[in-house]
DNA sequence: TACAATCGCTAACTTTTGCAAGCACATAGG
DNA sequence: CCTATGTGCTTGCAAAAGTTAGCGATTGTA
């Protein structure tokens, strides 16, 4: 139930510009980021909208943070802006940035679709324990 | 304009189960994949729905491919299933597969310089056990 | 048998997404 | 001056997303 609240907070953060002060990034909201990218590409709002196959009023609303675009629209925007979809998702606060910095083992475990959630958790715990043990024993 | 059509095709592909024959993956659709993950985690539909903060009928519809979840719902599902959001997006056909590079857990473990040989062995054993358990339990 | 709890699903509803039509403003060109 | 074409924005509206209430079926338990 409290997850709902977290979702709402995320939504709020994504769509409302002045909530962006949390991040040091000057283009913190998804909309601002997209607008910035569009302007860097010298594209007008309509041009980008046409390229992406979405309507121009809608793109306008996205840029101003009035609408939260769906996954597919976001994907389409990523293609239009020649940007990795992951970058866009990260900007939108949808993808975890720190995940990229995790160790390869953890990443691999997280990505393995053949393990259950519990099993993944166990393997990651195990891995972290090993790392910790090695840490302390080497500083002896 | 033809981008619109591509979007629709993607939507169709994502949501309609029997369109999934294109992929060799037996859990090709997002819904099937989520269901599989949920069952691996021994969670009932309602339990996962509660964890993710969404309604159970909606999760049911997602699993059956009747609804396309938004980015935020997908993210929430990823968290609930302890799986990388990227993996989920890739399954949904929203992220390119090569971007998410499903690196092998064993390979990652083998290459990790911070683990001892013994620790590597243990992790790989553990991983193999899990896989085997899942194998037998899914052939029910 | 009956009562309670859990499973997944259906139906009806509210909310949000995304679009078509059209507004106001600016820069030109005839 | 008047049309033309560009910019971004506002306004309803259809179609999806997502929720609440409740169904029938199953399981355990008294």
Structural description of this entry:
2 copies of one chain form a homodimer. By secondary structure, chain A is an all-alpha fold. Chain A has 2 domains: 96 residues, Orthogonal Bundle (434 Repressor (Amino-terminal Domain)); 37 residues. In chain A, 63% of the residues lie in helices and 0% in strands. The first copy, chain A, is built from 8 helices and no strands. Chain A binds a DNA duplex (30 and 30 nucleotides) through helix 4.
Structure in a nutshell:
Chain A is mostly helical.
Features of this protein?
homodimer, 140 residues, mainly alpha, 434 Repressor (Amino-terminal Domain), 2 domains, 8 helices, 0% strand, elongated, DNA-binding
Q: What's the assembly state of these chains?
A: homodimer
Q: Could you tell me how far the N terminus lies from the C terminus of chain A, measured between alpha carbons in angstroms?
A: 46 Å
The helix-and-strand class of chain A reads: mainly alpha
Uncertain parts of chain A: 1-26
The total of beta strands of chain A comes to 0
């Amino acid at each position: 139930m409290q997850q709902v609240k977290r979702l709402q907070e995320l939504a709020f953060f994504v769509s409302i510009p002045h909530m962006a002060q949390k991040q040091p990034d000057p283009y913190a909201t998804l909309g601002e980021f997209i607008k910035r990218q569009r302007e860097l590409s010298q594209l007008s709002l309509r041009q980008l909208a046409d390229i992406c196959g979405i309507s121009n009023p809608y793109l306008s609303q996205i840029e101003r943070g009035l609408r939260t675009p769906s996954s597919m629209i976001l994907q389409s925007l990523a293609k239009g802006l020649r940007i990795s979809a992951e970058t866009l998702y990260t900007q939108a606060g949808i993808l975890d940035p720190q995940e990229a910095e995790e160790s390869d083992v953890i990443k691999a475990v997280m990505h393995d679709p053949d393990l259950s959630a519990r099993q993944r958790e166990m393997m990651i715990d195990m891995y972290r324990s090993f790392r910790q043990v090695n840490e302390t024993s080497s500083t002896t």
